[in-house]
Write a structure and sequence with these properties.
The chain is an alpha/beta fold. The chain folds into 2 domains: 130 residues, Rossmann fold (3-Layer(aba) Sandwich); 47 residues, no CATH class. It contains 7 helices and 7 strands, in the order βαβαβαβαβαββαα. The strands form 2 sheets. It has a 5-stranded parallel beta sheet, with helices on both faces. Strands 6-7 form a two-stranded antiparallel ribbon. Helix 2 packs parallel to helix 3 and helix 3 runs parallel beside helix 4. The protein is elongated, with a radius of gyration of 26 Å. The N and C termini lie far apart (72 Å). The model has no long low-confidence stretch (mean pLDDT 88).
């Protein structure tokens, strides 16, 4: 996986990056929250591991920005904390963190946490794909909604988006359907 590691302590960052590389991940490093935010936008990592306390932008603020970005692919965020208190967990969760790791952490803990992240991301991808599937009738092209009622495609889409429709006939359909009907009507008038 591609992992963004935002950690202001260069020694800790070097050790964690080496551990993550050893586990087979691609690591993008950032020296603070601002650099982490820039790297997140440029690199589009699947996982973000961020220190809680950093200069220029702390971990919870980085989490909030990541969640506000509303990227189609869900990024999994792990907050690193030296705080040995659970009070901060609520703040971290409210900011959008998925998991917490207390520093210093070892390679086994990283491996376990990243397996959870990988499973979560795989499930998120599957849900996103399933949400994209719409039951549609092959004959009339109506869509079945969440109440198991069948609706015209245009009505279904207009109810859920700002899309508007105007109707026309494409050249292929005109030749295949409309022109033969018009020809039959002209012949019938003679």
């Amino acid at each position: 996986m591609k992992i963004l590691l935002a950690e202001d302590d260069s020694g800790s960052r070097t050790v964690m990056a080496a551990q993550l590389h050893k586990l087979g991940h691609v690591v993008v490093e950032a020296a603070d929250g601002e650099a982490g935010w820039a790297a997140f936008q440029a690199e589009k990592p699947q996982v973000v591991i961020t220190d809680w306390m950093m200069p220029r932008m702390d971990g919870p603020e980085l989490c909030r920005r990541i969640r506000a970005a509303n990227r189609p692919e869900y990024p999994y965020v792990i907050l690193l904390t030296a705080l040995d208190r659970k009070v901060g967990y609520v703040e971290g969760m409210n900011a959008g963190a998925d998991d917490f790791v207390t520093k210093p952490c070892d390679i086994v803990e990283f491996e376990v946490r990243l397996r959870v992240a990988q499973r979560t991301l795989a499930l998120q991808t599957e849900v996103h794909q399933l949400e994209g599937l719409l039951p549609i009738c092959p004959n009339c092209k109506k869509i079945q909604d969440e109440n198991e009622e069948w609706q015209v495609v245009e009505a279904y889409i207009m109810k859920r988006t700002d899309a508007q429709f105007s109707h026309g006939i494409c050249p292929d359909c005109y030749e295949k359907y409309m022109k033969p009907q018009l020809d039959r009507m002209r012949r019938a008038k003679r």
